[in-house]
Structure formats: structure tokens, C-alpha cells
Specification:
Subcellular location: Cell membrane; Membrane
CATH superfamily: Umud Fragment, subunit A
GO molecular function, one term: signal peptidase activity
Oligomer: single chain
CATH architecture: Ribbon
Pfam family, one: Peptidase_S26
Number of strands: 12
Order of helices and strands: HEEEEEEEHEEEEE
Mean pLDDT: 85
Family: Belongs to the peptidase S26 family.
Distance between the termini: 60 Å
Membrane topology: Single-pass type II membrane protein
Amino acid sequence: MDKQAAQTNNQVWEWAKAILLAVIIFFILRSFIASPSVVSGYSMEPRLYTGERVIVNKLLYQFAEPKRGEIIVFQSKKGPDHIKRVIALPGEKVRVEGDRVYINGKLFDEPYLKEAVEQAKKAGTSYNFIDFAEQTVPENTLFVMGDNRSKSRDSRDPSEGFVDFDDIVGRAEVVFWPLNNIELIK
């Protein structure tokens, strides 16, 4: 084998190692740290829209508990993963009456819905038509709701119910697609 052939074989081997390392790193990142998720349906409008893609932080909840207001991705009891907003935490009493959510008897302020609720009021209607009688959130579960309250199958629906901590995939961090909508999720 001449010198040029040996050099070519060496370059091929180096490229193969680099590609293999990249694939291994990709699978580790996707499995344990972050993964993409597609928004499907209208339940999170006006915050997230069908077809948008988000990066889900899978590592965060290994070290911290979910917080009220965060948008999480979780495994649904019926079908594909869902994306919803955390409303009430374990041990809290939650109820929903029209456009108002009460946690432990106090009105919960939801600034991310103010504009949509005001538009519904101007139109002479309610933004939310699905009430929820007061219940205490069981330990190791969350009460979640979609931002598009009347078009969301969430914890108010008995077929979905409270979300078990074990079913949480992670917190939605960034919208990365479509490119003109790239932004951090607050």
C-alpha cells in the first residue's frame, strides 16, 4: 500500500470516528437532556400554535419540582404527548369557574391570558366554558390546563385527570420552528 492510500484510509477512519462520536452525543442529548416536541392541536393558543416545534428540557425535573405557570410536556393517558401549563401543585386545592381559577381559595393571576379573556368579554362571552369543582391535587401529581381553555383536554377532563410526575417528559424551553417564531418560552 502506497503512502497516499494509507493517508486516505487514515482520513476515512478519522471521519468515521467523528461521525460515530457525533451520533453517540446526539442520542445521549436526545435521550437524557433535551428533545424536540411538536405542538399538535389548539389547546395552547395563543401561546403555542399547531405545528410549532419546541425544545423540551428533560433534565430539569431530575433536580427540581415543576412550578406553577411552566409549560410542560407529558405522556398522555390517551395517545401522544401533551403540552400544557402547570396550574396547581401537589396538596393545593384548585377550582375553575368560568374565566377564573382559584388556588387554595385565592384568585390565580394569569397575565398570559388577559388579552384573550378581555376579547371574549368584549364579544359578550366567556373565554372558558369548562368549569372544575374544587379538588385537592394528589401528591406526586399536577393540575394542568391548556391556555385555550374551552378547547383543551386537560386535568379538568376525567379521562386525563391529574398528571403524574412520572409521566412528565420535561419543560418546554424554546420554540425553534418555524424559524420566524424562534423564542424562549417564558
